[in-house]
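Researcher: I'd like a structural prediction for the single chain below. Treat it as a standalone chain; there are no partners to consider.
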Amino acid sequence: MRKTGPIIAMAVFALTACDPGPGSAPPPAPALTAPVTDVAQLVAAARAGIAQAPSAAFTTDAVVGPDTKSVTGSLRFDGSTSSLTMLLDGSEVRVLGKKTYTRSPGAAIPGKPWVGTDPDSPDPMAQAAGVAVPTIVQLPDLGRALAEIERTGRIVSADRTGPANHYRLELDPTKAPDLFPEFTRVPLDGKPAAPITGKLPAELWLDAALRPVRFAVDLSPGFEQPGPTVKGTTEYREWGKPVTIEAPPGDQVVDLSELLKKLGT
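Model: Treating it as a single chain, here is the predicted structure.
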């Protein structure tokens, strides 16, 4: 019995040594590295950072013509394509790749509360409806933003701003018109439409973990001038938060082109 005490004491000591306890220090946060100078490196770094925690919450503040709008939502990123869910003017909007689903308070067709769009549909009317997604819905899409930067952008300047690297960018829509369908111009009187000439100023902030904390872009120069003011800033936060974004059941969705046909539009 006399040996029991020392044995128990040794066991407690061993367990204590293995357990860091509630007062242990958390792992050190990553240090902010110097900004990169090449667009390809910038996009690769952002995608790598996002891959470590591929979901987040966001808030977008935008100016679209005379209106100012603010939306909040969540996104999930698979490396190239974003899925998003957000609330906009009382409607729930889900974006999965190129497809968009919107549920408004009142359903135009009983039993089908969701209106869907798909720019890859073989129906020309559905293609047009799919392209006409509100700009405010497109602004927080990181997949779209990184593709635009990668294919059309150049770094104007880069510096450290507080806990993030701040990149000032210039986007040239003529390098990838397919990424900017909103700038499509219709020929008038049989004459070719005027080409896009405006360059788009944009800004991207990456934190020490290489995750976007803010993206801002001014689309106004891409429209025929004088044109509307269209610009927005998205703040990203809570990277790694659980996010589930799924397409609504198919029997609850009506395609926007079909809805317009039923309404005689």
